[in-house]
Write a structure and sequence with these properties.
There is one protein chain. The chain is about 90% helix and about 0% strand. By secondary structure, the chain is an all-alpha fold. The longest helix has about 70 residues.
Amino acid sequence: MQSQNSDPLDQLRYAINDLIDRIKVQQQHNIIQDDRLSDHDRRIEETEESIQLLCRKVAQFDYLIGRNQELEEKNDFYCRD
């Protein structure tokens, strides 16, 4: 009598079930990686938005510094003794 393990059909079923299990594990791993990537993408987007805001604020500050210098020069000109 042949053992069940040597039946080619059973071996094929075992191999297919093993592949299905491996695919399921890989799918779970991919889901975790996708979540991590989404989180990183969100953080990158937030950082880029923060950088853009910072650049706008620096430009405004630079403008205000220049304007302040102009006003100080005018004030010095008109307030000379």
